[in-house]
Write a structure and sequence with these properties.
485 residues, alpha/beta, Rossmann fold, GMP Synthetase, Chain A, domain 3, 26 strands
Amino acid sequence: MKTITRSFISNTFFANDLANKIKFDKLSLSKNIDYWKYILVTKFNAKHGESIIIGHQNLNIDYLATIYAAAELSLKIVIIDYIRQDNFNDLNFFDPKTKVLSPIDIFIHDFNNEYLENESPGFEKFNFFKRYSKRTYSIIDDIESSADIDQDEFNRISNIQPCKDDILIKATSSGTTNTPKVIEHTHEFIHAVSLRNTQLYKTGNAAVHVKNLNHGASAAVTLFPAIASDDISQHFIYSVDEDGPLTEFVELLSPYRNEVSFMSFPYPYLTDKFVESSNDIGVTWPNLNLITLSYIVESAKNAVRDKKFKSIVSIFGSTETIGPVFTNHITTDRWDCDSRYFKKVDDFYKIDLSSDGKISITPPVYNFPHITNDYFIREDEFFVHQGRSDLVRINGEHFDLATINKLNKENDKFYIVVDTVSQCLYLAYWEDISQEEINSYITEIENNFKRITVNKSMQLIKKSFYYGIKLDNELLREYFRNHIT
């Protein structure tokens, strides 16, 4: 069957829940999958084809089991940046991605209902998604005793299986150049991508899984294929707290430093935190290959150079194609390679590069081309990323990047950075400048827009943000997001 079910889990699967000091194998996980299938149907009223947000904060056997249970029931797992830090204080705000995904049928989480009802500080995001979901359940408060299980019904539900054409993942396009649109992927496609990606895990011993596992790329690139791989002898799971240091995580994982082979951190700042915490307790990871969904920044390259870990690979793909389509691989032998230089992984996707530099990607199963908003040029074996297309949107306002480029060319003392994730602009300046001049230029920038503001400004060392002859906007964005308050 070309579907994502427990049959796609390796028979040698063995997991170590580091925080809870619990170990479990495929049989234990399979029993939990049946339990959560029963709960989803009988307690949460889940029906074939409904959409679901799996909003657990704790990464454990129940989280993994719920993902597979939802898949076997043919629920559409909604992909959102659920774990990413956001300011959701304004519950009247209705972001474009939530709008196109709504109404979400089921939202489940692992907090006590009293926290949500009181709208306590720190729980704004839960309340936000509760507002745009038809049904919300706490797996802490809304499940009765297992003694109430109807065994006949339990057996019936455990036998439910998906069809290959059923939708497994529901997400949105990036929305960078226009209104986000819904992207849905079938079991057959995700199975094909995941099966192909098992090749990524043929040279290691142990994989580490952290939060946000039901993110689309994380699921098809790291979760499903790694768990399906017979070459991975052990899986470590831990709920990383993205707001704080990773010291406890590193301490718990350090006894396995020589075994750990694969781990995914979608964003560069998590890699930085991981290296910082590793340095604090004096541990290196000689066989660890990190996977990231972003450009590889200078600090990660330096960590590979200094043998803090073995390598880091940047994955290029899109919501429509999943991936990896291209990869940029930094190793100790080539630690200083340009992060824009990608190589084609294999022939899984059909790749065409148009005369104007746009990439057309035709995935299998669907067999129709998707033209991305990314531009590349070809240099021998490399596809060199040149950036995104010209139109972007911040706070619901569309504008042409030519406006920003023009300002940057006219005033070389400043450099404006666009951040569509944090919905703002940043302003870097390269020399000592009076606050009056800075404020005046910020006003000049903001006069070009209606709802777009400069949220942060800082003097930086220009040469630290170059790749080749160009400033690296991704590196600047990450620096402003994570190092400047």
